[in-house]
Design brief:
Layout lengths: L3 H13 L10 H22 L1 H7 L1 H14 L14 H8 L7 H16 L23 E5 L4 E5 L3 H7 L15 E7 L4 E5 L2 H11 L4 H8 L3 H13 L3 E6 L3
Antiparallel strand pairs: 1-5, 2-3, 3-4
Helix pairs in contact: 2-4, 3-4, 5-6, 6-7, 8-9
């Protein structure tokens, strides 16, 4: 007699593959479960990647969804997580082709999905720096908002995302070049924003836990650039905590 785990595995396999018989549900009834499972999976994927769907069209997106589900079946009872491996799948499936940029677009859209379920911390104001002596400033480590994602691409994915907030938007030429930027949650919205490379490098270093001096060096900031970068992280409410290295 099959164990409960084996029966559950057979049921899940039958949902994804019509050639696999289900041992616990009559074949005539099982098509209902299979159809509902397919529709739920596809709907969740469409909800998470609306811009990507617009760019490739419904038919091709549906084809990608079928292949993706076969490679990365859902492992969670929460449909939010259906798309967590979609960018990885597209990177493998489209590698070296004309649509390789879709993987980076998927990363951007999945960052929005993750930001949508991330908490937003109360930000610190710039006057928090006054608590530290001047000699301590270069050793300060900033904790940034947990919803913040930083993305860099060889393709203009931020321009593509911005242009495709409506149906039937014209294609964006790849000659625009690579872009970098951030995705984050605010209290009232999800923000997608392009960033200049020095500021992106600065935020990336801070996000990785680098002290202020190392982040400045990584971004190649002069004094004016540092003032602007510090102003940005505080006025945009990105800083949640500040501590000195080793404390």
């Amino acid at each position: 007699m099959a164990s409960l785990r084996e029966l559950q595995g057979a049921f899940a396999a039958s949902l994804r593959d019509s050639s696999v018989a289900c041992p616990v549900v009559p074949a005539g009834n099982f098509s209902i479960y299979r159809n509902n499972s397919e529709i739920s999976f596809r709907s969740a994927l469409e909800s998470s990647f609306p811009v990507l769907r617009r760019r490739v069209g419904d038919d091709y997106f549906r084809q990608l969804g079928v292949l993706y589900r076969a490679r990365f079946p859902s492992r969670s009872g929460d449909l939010h997580w259906v798309g967590r491996n979609f960018a990885e799948f597209l990177l493998e499936h489209l590698h070296g082709g004309d649509y390789a940029w879709l993987s980076d677009l998927a990363r951007l859209e999945w960052s929005r999905e993750q930001a949508s379920i991330s908490r937003v911390e109360l930000p610190l104001a710039a006057d928090v720096l006054g608590r530290f002596a001047p000699s301590q400033l270069e050793h300060l480590v900033f904790t940034l908002q947990p919803s913040l994602s930083l993305l860099a691409s060889d393709f203009p994915i931020f321009t593509i995302w911005e242009a495709n907030q409506v149906e039937n938007a014209p294609p964006v030429g790849q000659s625009v070049g690579g872009e970098c930027g951030m995705v984050r949650a605010r209290f009232d919205l999800l923000e997608v924003r392009r960033l200049p490379p020095p500021l992106f490098s600065y935020l990336s270093a801070l996000s990785a836990g680098a002290p202020l001096a190392d982040a400045i060096s990584a971004a190649g900031l002069d004094q004016a650039g540092l003032v602007n970068a510090l102003g940005f992280v505080f006025t945009e409410g990105l800083v949640c905590s500040v501590r000195e290295t080793g404390t």
